[in-house]
Amino acid sequence: MIPVSTSACQDQRQTEPGWQSILQHAVSDPVELCRRLALPLSDQEAITAACQLFPLRVPEPYLARIEMGNASDPLLLQVLPQAMELQEHAGFISDPLDEQAHNPVPGLVHKYASRVLLITTSLCAVHCRYCFRREFPYDDNRNSRLDWQQALDYVRTHQELNEVILSGGDPLSLPDRQLGWLMEQIAAIPHIRRLRIHSRLPVVIPQRITKECLAWLTGNRLQTIMVLHCNHPNEIDLAVSNAIKQLCKAGITVLNQSVLLAGINDHAPTLASLSERLFAAGALPYYLHALDRVRGSHHFAVQDGRGIQIHHELQALLPGFLVPRLVREEAGHHSKSWLV
Ligand code: SF4
């Protein structure tokens, strides 16, 4: 098993694999995953079919946080393909946020007035079974410099924009050199003030926060915000906590968004513990998303009424600044809808 570094910034010993190696060697076979966790693999045929629709992907540092022999582990349930993904349910569709209607040039989504989202890559370090982009047409949104030029030209000509969001896939799965170049291009556009990076990599492979990464994140005039995606307190071990602290120490604002997921975090004390651990490391809880109704994710859905009740219970457990806002993203709306 690959050891998890307790120091996130890259003072790793020679014997430890770098983040790119960890990314490359993520577990992608459900038989191997179950063997590693001492779990029986039931329903193998259906799980193989689910993997064909959206492959399994679990990197070693995340795998190391899953409890051996526990088929209900909240981290395992986020990544293990299930037969239930094959069931069709009314209202659960391939593009629940209608992003393809807001895709004016390859690699760019423009839904909200002041900000645009760049689809920088199709690659993620982990495959979250509830991901709303599990069927996103990444092949139509390639990330060569030529495609990025088209997206950057769009940003240059739209003076009403003040913020660019790097998304994906996971933008931090790209090499630092490529991201540094992109950052320079964005910083050279005078009307852009902020750069936001949506990433799950500091959570699933905390070794990703290297000196090189911090250098391009901070080496320009933009205000930089890192929005993590963490759903359960067990996802935050010492290495993740140190990675967040490194980002904060470098002057980056660190926020977190979670998805409310049945059987994983639909429990106020669990969410309270998540907020406490995030804040202890320096990250502020930002959004708690109602599930985006993507095909194959119905078994993760929490009814709105139950979500609102959990949120009320959460308010009773935490100071206001640690309570994430419960929101839903709806196709065609100009902002997120607040459920509470
Ligand atoms: S890391 Fe983000 S983009 Fe990638 S599968 Fe998970 S939710 Fe989807």
Summarize the structure.
By secondary structure, the chain is an alpha/beta fold. 32% of the residues lie in helices and 14% in strands.
Account of the protein in words:
There is one protein chain. Helix 7 (176-187) packs parallel to helix 9 (211-218) and helix 10 (238-249) crosses helix 11 (268-281). The chain has helices spanning 19-24, 30-36, 44-53, 60-63, 76-79, 145-157, 176-187, 201-204, 211-218, 238-249, 268-281, 304-317; strands at residues 108-112, 115-119, 163-167, 194-199, 223-229, 253-259, 284-289, 325-328, 337-338. The longest helix has 14 residues, at 268-281. The protein is built from 12 helices and 9 strands. Mean pLDDT is 92; it is low at 1-13. Strand 3, helix 7 and strand 4 (194-199) form a beta-alpha-beta unit. The protein has 340 residues and is of the alpha/beta class. It has 2 domains: 19-86, no CATH class; 99-338, TIM Barrel, CATH 3.20.20.70. A 9-stranded mixed sheet has the order 1-2-3-4-5-6-7-8-9. The structure holds iron/sulfur cluster. Iron/sulfur cluster binds at residues 124, 126-128, 131, 133, 168-170, 200, 229.
